[in-house]
Amino acid sequence: MDEGEGEKIRLGVSSCLLGEEVRFDGGHKRDLFLTDVLGPFVDWVPVCPEVEIGLGIPRDTIRLVGDAAAPRLVVEKTGEDLTARMRRYAEAKVRALEALGLHGYVLKRASPSCGLFRVRVHHPNGLPSAAGRGLYAEALVARFPLLPIEEEGRLTDAGIRENFVERVFAVARWRRFLAAGPRPRDLVAFHAAQKLAVLAHSPAHYAALGRLVARTGRALTRAALDEYGTALMEALAVRATRARHTNVLQHLAGYVKRELDAPGRAELAEAIQEYRRGLAPLVVPLTLVRHYVRRFGVASLADQVYLDPHPKELMLRNHV
Ligand code: SF4
């Protein structure tokens, strides 16, 4: 989170990932990254759709069957069809979640209720295909198309993990901005602070957002804010690359270079090149840049979200 901005982020989560014993076999799937690393920054909103539709603990296993594009949810042993019950519940639940202002959601992979990607769909004749989506997850994505939603399994990938957390904190930042009742010049300042973060993800969105802010001029309408918020979230959903990070780092170095002596410039250039070649994590050149920004009081960079997009304790930029 922007340092010092206090309030926790609020994430929906499949209950079993927090260690709640709600699975079909009475067990859980506690995820240590979520509970121990991300947990201190989060107010969790745990949901177990299967328990909430009245299935017991333990319970017979359920699965998706039929057409992967429109699968049915059935009890494996008895063939009881739970599709309508789960869909009804999911619609009502995601509507109720709207009032909670979630900043993101983490779902349990492979579940016929919670799984987001490649959930098995069984066919009466033939092999299952890994092409489905859990029915609860489907309702969630339909209701909150811009919300960062991920599976715990994918969050073991360092790039996906950073992208998810960065977007979650961006949602929180954007909501705080909206809640403050912004005036036109506030959007200009907000955008100026996001610029380099956006550039690391998507140069195309960077250009489009700049045009949008310029065109907004004196009239900051609700429609313009919605358009900006949507484009910002879409930009950050594009995965940042090493090449784009390098570009942003060089951009940042351009601001501090004139204050540095020759050895200082060489050290910074070397740190950026080592990152570019995959020999050092992003945190190395960034720490150096951040240090110089503060030491030289580079006012135009002091508020750049790119320098501090999420809490350092999460160490999301420490991988090579
Ligand atoms: S995956 Fe979803 S439905 Fe299954 S136990 Fe976990 S929270 Fe409940």
Number of helices: 12
Order of helices and strands: EHEHEEHEEEHEHHHHHHHH
Termini Cα gap: 22 Å
The percent range for helix content is 40-55%
Main beta-sheet annotation: 4 strands, parallel
Radius of gyration: 22 Å
> What would the principal axes of the Cα set say about the shape?
elongated
Mean pLDDT: 95
What share of residues are in beta strands? 5-15%
Q: What number of domains?
A: 3
| Neighbour order of strands in the largest sheet | 2-1-5-8
Uncertain regions: pLDDT < 50 for 5+ in a row? none
Number-wise, the strands total: 8
Q: Which secondary-structure class do the elements indicate? A: alpha/beta
Name the hetero compounds present. Answer: iron/sulfur cluster
Describe the fold and architecture.
With 320 residues, the protein is of the alpha/beta class. Helix content is 48%, strand content 11%. A four-stranded parallel beta sheet has the order 2-1-5-8. β6 and β7 form a beta hairpin. The chain is elongated.
Task: Offer a concise description of the structure.
This protein is α/β, with parallel strands linked by helices and 320 residues long. Helices cover 48% and strands 11% of the residues.
Topology (SSEs and partners):
Elements (H helix, E strand, L loop, with lengths): L8 E6 L17 H7 L3 E6 L1 H4 L9 E4 L6 E4 L7 H16 L5 E4 L11 E4 L6 E4 L2 H9 L5 E3 L6 H22 L4 H18 L1 H14 L5 H16 L4 H16 L4 H15 L6 H13 L3 H4 L18
Parallel strand pairs: 1-2, 1-5, 3-6, 5-8
Antiparallel strand pairs: 3-4, 6-7
Helix pairs in contact: 3-4, 5-8, 6-7, 6-9, 7-8, 9-10, 9-11, 10-11
